[in-house]
Amino acid sequence: MLDHLSIQCADLGASAAFYDAALAPLGGQRVMDFGEATAVAHGAEVLHEPRLWPEYHATYYGAFVRDPDGNNVEAVCHQPE
Are 45 and 30 a contacting pair, CB within 8 Å? Predict the structure, then answer.
């Protein structure tokens, strides 16, 4: 399920290839389907390792990377463990 998404890119082909690879672990086709390790392998910079973010809410588990265009990409799960 998408929570929110906004992406600006300088090179659509490069961004599409990045997101196709980085988001593939959840089986989507350019849908917010995110694998941090895969994203990093395709040029993302880790901003925040996956962890609970209780300042957002008790079950907010997220990871943050910066894509090759500098966009902050967040993968989040709101489900309790």
Answer: no
Any residues with CB less than 8 A from the CB of 37 and at least 6 apart, and which?
none
- What is the SS3 string spanning 16-72? HHHHHHHCHHHCCCCCCCCCHHHHHHCCCEEEEEEEECCCCCCCCEEEEEECCCCCE
Give the pLDDT confidence of 14-72 residue by residue, as tens digits: 877 887 787 777 665 554 455 677 778 878 899 998 889 999 999 888 888 888 888 88
End-to-end CA distance of the chain: 17
